[in-house]
Structure formats: structure tokens, C-alpha cells
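Appendix B, example 12.
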Amino acid sequence: MKPIPWRRVEKWKCVRCGKCCEELDVMVTSEEEKRLRKFGDVFRRGKVLVYLKKIDGRCIFFRSGICAIYPERPMACVKYPFYFRSTGGEESYFGGYHVYVDSNCPGVVLGHPTESLVDTIQNLLKNERLIIV
């Protein structure tokens, strides 16, 4: 991951490359764990947190080039490539939070932020499942 402040990003659009399904260790909340249990043995336990398992280096739900649980995917997946923090610099500040973007995501275009990017961030911040660290 190579996080940069959101103000350096012109726009972002998911290009459905699956790179995030390989690179992310997808943390799940206790609510998400309960909701996703119906899919069987799909979790691995860390020292403190619970993550989705990986098979052959990819998320267990990445099948045939798409996410098999897209409508139910964990918040870590919903918000990628955006990261929300409680602290940071002036360039990352957005409405009381600090927003960073993983510049390694192929859907990220660097430049002056567009209204579309601002709308995306605002919509993510409205999600009650969003976790700010």
C-alpha cells in the first residue's frame, strides 16, 4: 500500500482488476463475521482481529474475476482504496477526518480532485459501518 492524501487524486473508479483482492488482508468486524458465517469456513484469526481467508493468494470470495459476495462484502472492501484516519496533515483533511488513497490501485488517477471524487468520499463517510482509525 502506498497511501497519499486525497487532495492529490483527481478521480477513482474501480477497474475490476482484482488487485485489492490479492493485496488486502480483509479485516471483518464482529457484525460482518456473524453475517458472513453462512458461507462456511471463510475466516482466519489473527492475534486480535478476524480476517477473510485467502486461497492461492487471493480473497476466498474472488472467483472468476469477480467478488462472489459483492453486495455483502465487508466494509474494508467497500472503502478500498480509501483509508480514513482521525489524524493527519492538512492535505488529507476532509470534513473532520483525514482521508488517504492507495496510489497503487490502478483505478486511481492523480491530479486535482473532481466533484465525483468528493462525492465518493462523502458517501463513504455517511456509511454507518465505516471504521475510522
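The two ends are 16 Å apart (CA to CA). The chain has a mean pLDDT of 92.
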